[in-house]
Structure prediction request, 566 residues.
Amino acid sequence: MAQHRKSKDLFKLLLSLLVLLVVVFILQFSFFRWDLTSEKRYSLSDNTKELVASLDKDLYFEIYLAGDLPHGFTKLQKACMEMLDELAVYSNKRISYSLINPNDIANPKKRNAFFQQLVERGLKPTSLQEKTKDGSLKQKIIIPGIIVHDQEKETSIHLLKSVAGLSAEQNLNQSIEALEYELTSAIRLLQDQKPKEIGFLTGQGELNEYEVADITASLLQRYEVKRIGTKVLAQDYSRFAALLVAQPRKEFAKADKYRLDQYIMHGGKVLWLIDEVEASMDSLTTKESTVAFYKPLNLEDQLFTYGVRINPDLIMDVQGQLIPIQTALPGEAPKFTPAPWYYSPLLKTPNTNPITKGLNVVKAEFANSIDFVGKNNKLKRQVLLASSDYTKLEKVPVQISLDIVNRKMRPSDFPSGSRNIAVLLDGIFPSVFKNRAWKGIQKSTFKEQSVPTKMIVVSDGDIIRNRVRGSGNNRQIEALGYDRYSRKTYGNSSFLLNCVDYLCDDKGWMNLRSREVKLRLLNPTKIRTKRVFWQMFNLVLPLFLLLIFALFRFYMRRRKFARLRK
Prediction:
């Protein structure tokens, strides 16, 4: 009887081993991964899989988010490592990484020099406050970034998103959501042999190269950037992936309008940054008031045909930038007090679009409102930037005075509601020259309807303009979106980069920015009130289960012993 039982057990063991060997053999020739999370946080897009499967060089990732980190940053570090492991699975080349902690360098001078090198390579330090053993606070510098390189070149990735108004947990969660997009953007940048060309339009008094120097420097990391007139544009309508029209100040001639129109009809993408009202903060630095007036650019009919109208008004918004105002009495020492400047709204960035998802607020200055017009069923229209719900529209001409900061404004003084300031149009556009008799129309190449394309219209050219101080060799370029008074940097640069990336994106890479990872936070109230209960539960339950298991084994052994005695 006992011998028969042993033979039966041996047979079961051999059968199990055989099944295991068959499964292992099958797995050698098949590959699958299961992502059981509701939001598919561990699943890569098809574009990403194709990208890493077609790599022509090994990639190495230096992760500087390392060391003794707070819990949120540890989650970001772990998510980054998991994403790189996932990329390595699908890659035909070697993808490797290492964690590097600059704070491990004991020598302060060498450590600071190393931090400076990382800044020069494109990474951004972040300062944290941590508690020491004696309870005091200590400043700690970390680098939440990655440097990616192959054998020839490198690029940097800044991992940490910092959106005003969001908690630290939400910002870190958005950083995790953006990981796939940021990593694939860096890989594509290293893989691209010839970057796409984009152009800044010239000839109509647009911003000069110094006034767009900051955004140009950022764009040059991804594209070839040229300053071109419409004649160059018309030589080959397919040459430039996107065109930026940055705050023109002169009217467009009909020939220039025609070339722009046909560029769009042939599939060209345009980022319009247009002011319909002449107003400037520079004039208020020398006098207390200035007059804002309507200054059309002869683009009104063209934009109207495409589906939008920029209105001759100025937006005043309760949610505006703070500026310093002299409040000292005559004879007293100068005293500056922050006051809201309603003509410089801080614009909302909705999370419903990949361009604006996870962006900081964008600073505008003397912006106009935008309306959608027409009923073109072949167009999709989306709002990218908008003022707050407490907005007032001022029709021009109007006198603008610094005295407005001294007025006591109430919510009822801003009755216009939220107004559009940047919009996205995606689809098929009619030509503004359709059914027009004009000798400049080239009938052999003229298109009266576009192929599917897209454009973005922003009713404020100052969104792209960086401040320039000094001249000649003493010229200094300030960061785009930087406010000297509050020392904040708004989301202007990121917004514009995303706009250009979206316009130039033919494969849907920007959709990765719409990825959502649900933030499952514990309820702090329940944590406080039920802390002792759950501590005892976690302590007692495992011991209770072990006791039950031990009693069960004791019982089974007693039964077996009793059966053998019989």
